[in-house]
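Technical note accompanying the year-one report. For the benefit of new consortium partners, we illustrate the data format agreed upon in the data management plan: each record pairs a sequence with a structure-token string. No post-processing was applied to the example shown here.
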Amino acid sequence: MDTGRAGTIFGQSMGDMLGKAFFQKHGLMPKGDYRLEALHAFPTPDFQNLGAGSYSTLKSWGIYTGSSSSRGNFGWNFGANKTKALFILGHLQGTLNRQILLLNDAEPNTNEAAGAKAFGLRSDLSATLYDLGRISSADGWNNAAGWTQLALANSVHYAPLSTIPAGLALYVDTSGGGVIKGFLRIGMDNWIEILSTTSSHLSVVRCATLLASPSGSGLGIFATPIGIYAE
């Protein structure tokens, strides 16, 4: 973990809103040609699969509004297959049961994120947990029925997202057996690694996706800063 230093706010450099120094220090920053950074305005997604819900933006927020427990997702396509990717979401807050960061091997084509295999990092408000998992191309998320848990974080790390904004980051390296890592940041404090496992479920990564899974109507608020890096 990085230590505090002059010119920082809660351990992060004032010029490093994404906390990239942490990932660079630990050799987790991909060096490829795909890079998306949005520090203020929420970036326009390349694709949306919203089901009965809706998507809107408000300055730094990308908002999924659920309807009748419908799931929805939106995200960004790297334009080519990659083997490593880091997906940083600076702030996550809302009243939805589940909000998930996914790194997929193709664009999902349903609101359940089917049509692509993926690794994911889930924040579950109702169960107060974070976990890493995988979904298949055929099932997608399927209201958690298609989710295979790979690693579960200790509940001591959980932040109640309805009142405290937290950042999440997902790292995937599909080479050499596959490495998946999950990270948490409370407010603008330092990143901490909360989960790590291996799996050969994916051979490539192509997209970064945000998936929201409400129980009834609720808001999933995904907010900048956002950083997506792939090689």
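Partners are asked to follow this layout when depositing records. The helical segments are 20-25.
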